[in-house]
TrEMBL record:
Domain CN hydrolase, chain residue ranges per copy: 4-259
EC number from the UniProt entry: 6.3.5.1
UniProt-annotated binding residues for L-glutamine: Y132, S189, K195
Binding site residues for deamido-NAD(+): N413, E442, K564
Name the UniProt record assigns to this protein: Glutamine-dependent NAD(+) synthetase
Catalytic activity: deamido-NAD(+) + L-glutamine + ATP + H2O = L-glutamate + AMP + diphosphate + NAD(+) + H(+)
Length: 594
């Protein structure tokens, strides 16, 4: 057996920031070197950021990424880090002569590179290209067909990229034939609820299939709708978890592994192998450092326990909000604070994400606002220390009503649209990002005002059903005084109990309640989960135990609201199917479930 100290750099790049991402690679490589690592690995597309989407089809960006990789290799050597092998993801392209009709323009590759001694030693590309959910890679990239196997300190290390683990056949299937001692997978695997357990099981299964230990490094951070949770891990050849990084924070997971020594008779070169998916994968062997190092003291393994369900969701919402604000150049946010549960949770997420001093809460009482709602909103602002301002809108509404003869729903929505005008005006004046307060239950059923409460730049709870909104608010209150990296250190409960227990209302007419327009959320949310996230049709919904009349009502509400959802701001994805790239339905659509 040989010893290998591997460092998995679970870090947070920004799409398109080639210089900033290179700085991160150098910084964390230095940390790995200081920890005595023999090999450091970074996530998928680390240099370019992920997902690059159609930037991959822009030749200027692809060439800039290729040049940035060469500069990075030289810089690592210039800064005394050239002896430490670095594996990183980047954006590449196939040679022009290999481009075929029907391929994406420029034949871009979701690629991985080994950097050593100031040079790019090995290049490879993702073989399996996901084309489901939020992924659109089959349209953007062309497929790789190599499994690089690089000998480091006497251990053969094979490298694959993200989706190659999730699909049968391909590079993982030929890893056992390569007799690698370690399978290294670099990833940009987005978070969704309960994915951590699925990911661990997958890694265990693939390690057993490959017949070797498996190291899985994942990205962390927010990118538009996506949140990457880290959760990097290492499993043994029998699938036993050996080391695990914490979720939702940057972290260097350093582990000492006892691995089979490489067969000295396995010479550098290329060997084609049947990949068991109708393709051929070429094993591409390289020898970097042939001999294992002398024995050294073994570090204790790091094993971060996964978070509980609500903590995990809340951390994802905070990280997604923080990175959207930070990476898009904002320093502060503004939101309407109504005294209701949704705006209360959004304000709390914002305080945790960027600090309450950077949160501007606007109280916009109208003639129908209850005294309790105003008092509750003021109480929340005081508890959290956010900037609060009262802007009564009754006079503004009256001014519109003198010019327009509006009744019923049109009159109600006028108030919501005036409120949105106030937020947007303050956003323009002070440079705040407007946070939108709608939840997934409202988005699903169209229970929002277009250009009113649906207006804004980012929607932190867009993918959170109403029942979960209450659960998260209660959970957050239990964490007052708890030291967690994604929470502001509030000493007292940040959300008043009165907000959590009151019956929800839009307060756009006298004595209005959500249940006047919607089923009770205890009935509504389970139907929405089955219809929206599981794509169950009417018959399947009824067979699952949902009331037939309720099903018909909910389906009608959801189907009629597609045009509203298309105009809604982005927000963090936490479920298997969000309203965004996950769910792409036509707005003009005559199909109705029967």
């Amino acid at each position: 057996m040989a010893q290998l100290r591997i460092a998995l750099a679970q870090v947070n790049p920004t799409v398109g920031d080639l210089d900033g991402n290179a700085d991160l690679i150098v910084e964390w490589t230095r940390r790995a070197a200081d920890a005595g690592a023999h090999l450091v690995a970074f996530p998928e597309m680390m240099l370019a950021g992920y997902p690059v989407e159609d930037l991959a089809l822009r030749a200027s960006f692809v060439e800039a990424c290729r040049r940035a990789l060469d500069r990075l290799a030289r810089r690592l050597a210039d800064e005394g880090l050239g002896d430490l092998p670095v594996v990183t993801g980047y954006l590449d392209r196939r040679p022009v002569g290999l481009v075929r009709s029907g391929q994406p323009a420029g034949a871009p590759l979701d690629a991985a590179a080994w950097l050593h001694g100031g040079e790019v030693l090995v290049r490879s590309a993702k073989h399996h290209l996901p084309n489901y959910g939020v992924f659109d890679e089959y349209r953007i990239f062309v497929r790789g067909d190599r499994l690089p196997v690089v000998r480091v300190n006497g251990v053969d290390v094979a490298t694959v990229i993200c989706e190659d683990l999730w699909q049968d056949g391909g590079p993982v299937s030929v890893t056992s034939a390569s007799r690698a001692g370690l399978l290294l997978s670099i990833n940009a695997s987005p978070y969704e609820r309960n994915k951590d357990d699925v990911r661990l099981d997958l890694c265990a299964e693939r390690a057993r299939e490959a017949g070797c230990a498996l190291a899985y490094v994942n990205m962390v951070g927010g990118q538009d709708e996506l949140v990457f949770d880290g959760d990097s891990l290492i499993v043994g050849p029998d699938g036993t978890a050996l080391a695990r990084a914490p979720q939702f924070v940057e972290h260097l997971l350093v582990a000492d592994l006892a691995l089979p020594a490489a067969d000295p008779s396995a010479e550098p070169g290329r060997v084609p192998v049947d990949a068991l998916d109708g393709t051929t994968i070429t094993i591409d062997r390289h020898v970097l450092t042939p001999d294992p190092p002398p024995a050294y003291p073994v570090l204790p393994q790091t094993f971060a326990e996964p978070m509980d369900d609500l903590a995990e969701i809340y951390a994802a919402l905070v990280l997604g909000t923080r990175d959207y604000v930070r990476k898009n150049g904002f320093r502060s946010v503004v939101l309407g604070l109504s005294g209701g549960i949704d705006s209360a949770l959004v304000a709390t997420i914002a305080s945790d994400a960027i600090g309450p001093e950077n949160v501007h809460a606007i109280l916009l009482p109208s003639r129908y606002s209850s005294e309790g709602s105003v008092v509750d909103a003021e109480d929340l602002a005081k508890r959290q220390g956010v900037n609060a301002r009262v802007v009564p809108i009754a006079g503004m509404v009256e001014a519109f009503e003198r010019q327009l003869d509006l009744h019923g729903l049109a009159a109600e929505n006028l108030q919501a649209r005036i409120r949105a005008n106030v937020w947007m005006a303050l956003s323009n004046e002070h440079g705040h990002l407007v946070l939108t307060g709608g939840n997934k239950s409202e988005l699903a059923t169209g229970y929002s005002t277009l250009y009113g409460d649906s207006a804004g730049g980012f929607a932190p709870i867009k993918d959170v059903f109403k029942l979960t909104v209450w659960d998260l608010a209660r959970w957050r209150n239990t964490q007052a005084g708890v030291d967690l990296p994604f929470l502001h250190p509030f000493l007292h409960e940040p959300i008043p109990e009165a907000i959590i227990t009151k019956e929800p209302s839009a307060e756009l007419r006298p004595d209005q309640r959500d249940r006047d327009s919607l089923p009770e959320y205890t009935e509504l949310d389970p139907v929405l989960a089955d219809y929206v996230e599981r794509d169950m049709g009417r018959e399947a919904l009824v067979a699952a135990g949902h009331d037939a009349g309720l099903v018909d009502r909910v389906i009608r509400l959801v189907d009629m609201a597609e045009y509203k959802r298309r105009q809604y701001p982005p927000g963090p994805k936490i479920t298997p199917k969000n309203f965004g790239r996950d769910r792409r339905l036509p707005i003009t659509n005559a199909w109705r479930e029967k």
